[in-house]
Amino acid sequence: MSEIKGRLFTMSGIKRDHGRFKDIVRGRIRKNLKNFISQGEMIARQGKDGKVSIPMPQIRLPKFIFGDNKKGGVAQGEGNEGDPVKGMQEQPGQGEAGQGEGQHELEVEVSLEELAEMLGEELELPKIEPKGAKEVTTKNYKYSGINKFGPQSLRHYKRTYKEALKRQISSGVYNPEKPVIIPIKSDFRFRGWAESPRPQTNAVIIYIMDVSGSMGDVQKDIVRNEAFWIDTWLRSQYKDIERRYIIHDATAKEVDQDTFYRTRESGGTLISSAYKLLVDMVTKDYAASEWNIYPFHFSDGDNWSTEDTKVCLDMLREQVLPVVNQFSYGQVESRYGSGQFFKDLIEAFNQNEKLVASRIPDREGIYDSIKQFLGAGR
Q1: Which CATH class is domain 202-374?
Q2: Where in the sequence of the chain do the CATH 3.40.50.410 domains occur?
Q3: 168 phi and psi, to 5 degrees?
């Protein structure tokens, strides 16, 4: 019993139990990660603090209930075998009877960094080795010294104890038979921090989406869900990352994130217009020697003509693939789309590792598509 008390009522015991609980939660999330990815609930549950609130079945942990032993127990008090325990007689319930179990859910907050780690483990994603010579320098704070002054939250207890012990020994007040160490203000020591520069590699994600009439709300929602997880992973690989958005039908233009997901047009599709804007953007703002560049193009596979498709393939071959880390094409299935562009890409770049094409038939296909896009580790 003393061992149990020691475990329950010490900080190490609490931390150990809290760690076990986090491991259980983490296991539940990983087990249901594919469902979370396909449903897209995490996007709506993302808070301003960078954490995501995840619903999951309630986790019940065993606990002790302390009570007054004088109230009776096994083989104590009046009554015969089989009689109901006093105070536990059946009471009439309210409402109609049902067959299913009640829903008990709790909300668990998980950081995007933890989500990225779980995503990488579940999909077995390799770590990315950034390219590029240019680096952004940011400030990094490291606790590297001891000060005599500071906030209580940074008090160094071991050093404070040692200072108090040295003072009492040197002044002759230390009694080894009854060692009582009481620090005074001059004994307090605090952790000190120093500012140091930390290099961070540049990276940019450029999202391109077909917004012609054949791309409906369902297709755009699929793109939004997949982009959330792509963002989550790439942010875990780069400390500083930019995002740009291009929409196109017969013409292309750059927009902000909100417009990217909400715009709906109704025209033909000229994919080369988007690729021309992509080339202009990269040439102007993102030198290949200084930036890690990740374009992601989502479409239903329709294009205006075979001539325009030829223009697209030439641009990819000569101007895009030589400068990017990887070009990813995701074809979202639509009842109105022919899907021909996917076939053209595979035929033209089957041997080029920098181009990855993926079919996304529905929400369930997001999981496999992400693995295809990020599995190369470029």
Answers
A1: alpha beta
A2: 202-374
A3: -70, -35
